[in-house]
Amino acid sequence: MKQSMTFIPTLREVPADADIKSHQLLLRAGYMRQNASGIYSYLPLASIVLKKIEQIVREEMNRAGSAELLMPALQQSELWQESGRWYTYGPELMRMKDRHSREFALGATHEEVITSLVRDEVKSYKRLPLNLYQIQSKFRDEKRPRFGLLRGREFIMKDAYSFHASFESLDEVYEKMFQAYSNVFSRCGLNYRAVIADSGAMGGKDTHEFMVLSDVGEDTIAYSDTSSYAANVEMAPVITQYEKSSEEQKELVKTETPDQRTIDEVAQYLNVEKEKLIKSLVFKVDEKFVMVLARGDHEINDIKIKNLYGASVVELATPEETKQAAGVLPGFVGPVGADSKIDIIADHAVQSVVNGVCGAGEENYHYTGVNLDRDATVSQYADLRFIEEGDASPDGEGTIQFAKGIEVGHVFKLGTRYSEAMNATFLDENGRAQPMIMGCYGIGVSRTLAAIVEQYNDDKGIVWPAAVAPFQVHLITANAKQDAQSSLGEKLYAELLEAGFEVLYDDRIERAGVKFADSDLIGIPVRIVVGKQAEDGIVEVKERKTGEGMDVSLTDLHETISRLLQK
C-alpha cells in the first residue's frame, strides 16, 4: 500500500482526553478516531490489525472444532424475557422499539439467540456436541466509557457457544477452547495469565479469564509467587488458619464513641488494633437483608456472599436500607442484640476475635469486650473476605502476590442455565428429553488490539509484534523529489510485494524527519530507508523493536528482512 493513497492521519500532540498509552498511541498513530463517547472508527491500519487478530482467532477456533456463523446484532426482547435477563441484565443493555412498538436490544452477548437457534434445529443426542462461533460488534451502554478500546460502548468480540449431551463432553470441549485461547494470546505475543474467575451476569460456574498483565488493567490478579496458581482477586479463596487468643473473656461494655464511624476512627478513638474490630455491614441479597461480619483490617467480598447464597444480585444496602434492617445508620451497626429476623454471617477470621469491638446498634455507641460465641448469634462462618498479598496461596504453594490485568478472554461452563429457561432439549439414547448442557467462550478482539499496544510501545510510538503488525515492512524514500531515490523506491516496492512481503510505501512529498517520526509512531517491525546511497544499491534497514540500523546491499535485502521478522 502506498502511503499517499491511504488514510493515516497522525498527530504530534497527545490528545487531552486519552489517559493510557494504547488510547494515546492509537489516536496519534492514525489507527482510530472517536465518533462519540466509547464509540470509535477503525481507520485502515487498525482494520488490518483487527483482521490479523481475527484470522488468528479463526484458525484456533476452527482447529478446536468450532464452526463460524453470524447472528443478528438486533435481538428480540422475547428471547431475553425467556431467559429472564431482560429484567436483570441492567442498564448496560441497549434497548429500543421499532415502528410497531416491539422491543429489541442491541446484542451485548448472544446466549439467547444461539440457544433459540439450536433449540429449534437440534433434537437428538446424535447431533451433539455442537460448537459455534461468530466475530461481531457488541453493544453495552457503559456508564463511564474510558481507556479507549478497553472500555467502550461498541466493540468487536468473538463469542462461541457449545452444546452437549453430558458434562463430560462439556469438560472436553472446555479444555480444547481453553487451549485455543492460550494459543491465540500466545500467537499475538501477549504476556498473559489464565485466572479463575466469577461468571457474573452470564450465569454458570467453572470459568476462567485470560488476563493481559498491565498496570492499567481494571482487574486485580492474585497469583502464587512459586506456582502457576492465578485467580481474579474476587474469586481467590482464603485458606489462612486463625488461632483464637487464650486471653480471658471480658465483660461486654457499651462505650460512647461520638461521631466515630469508620474502622480507622474507632480504632484510634478506643486505642485498639483494627484486628480487634468487627466490621458489620448490611447487604441486600436478592431482596433479603443479611448482616456480614469481618475483621476490621479485612475487606468483605460480595462475590463470595453471592456464591454462598447462590444469589443473583448482591448489593451493599443504602444507609436508609441499613437503618430499616439494623435499626441504625452505617458505622454503628453490630450483631449484639440484632433483630432475629436478619441473618448474620461472618468471615472465618472473626471467629478468632476475643474481646472485640463492634457497633452497638445505637448512634454514637460501640460495644467493647465482644465475644460472638457469648454475645451474638452467627448463623454461619465462611470465607467472606478478599485475599490479600502475603496470604498463603490457595493451592498451598507459596504466598499471594497481586498484579493488574486487562481481561481479553473469558471461558464459561454455563451448564443448563439457558437451556432450561428456554426449553432447549434433546432426546437422549433412551428417548427421554434432557436439557442441553452449554459452554460459552468470548474474546474481546478490539480489546486485544489495545492490550497489545499497552505491552508493545516505547517513547516514540507503537512496536508491533510481527504476527499482528499492519505491515511487515515500512519502505521510505528519504527524498521523494530525488530521482535516484524515487526510482529505487518504486522498484523495491514492486519487488518486495512480488516476494510476498507486506509493505507500506511512504512515497509522500514530505520531509524525511516527518516520515521517520510517523514510521516510529505507526510501529511496523522493519523500516527500509532509500537515501543518499541509492545510486550505490545500498539502503538502511532498521529494526523497530531494537532501534538498531544497518546498511544493506540490495542483494542481501530479502534475507535480512526475513531474518528480522523471525526474531
Describe this structure in words.
The protein is of the alpha+beta class and 567 residues long. It folds into three domains: 16-237 and 402-453, BirA Bifunctional Protein, domain 2; 253-382, YbaK/aminoacyl-tRNA synthetase-associated domain (YbaK protein, Alpha-Beta Complex), CATH 3.90.960.10; 471-565, Anticodon-binding domain (Rossmann fold, 3-Layer(aba) Sandwich). Helices cover 27% and strands 29% of the residues. The chain is built from 15 helices and 31 strands. The strands form eight sheets. Strands 3, 7, 8, 9, 10, 11, 12, 21 and 24 form a nine-stranded mixed β-sheet that branches. A five-stranded mixed β-sheet has the order 16-14-15-17-20. A hairpin with a 7-residue loop joins β29 (526-530) and β30. The protein is globular. The chain starts with 20 loop residues before the first helix and ends with a helix. The model has no long low-confidence stretch (mean pLDDT 95). One of its GO terms (cellular component) is cytosol. Pfam families: HGTP_anticodon, tRNA-synt_2b, tRNA_edit.
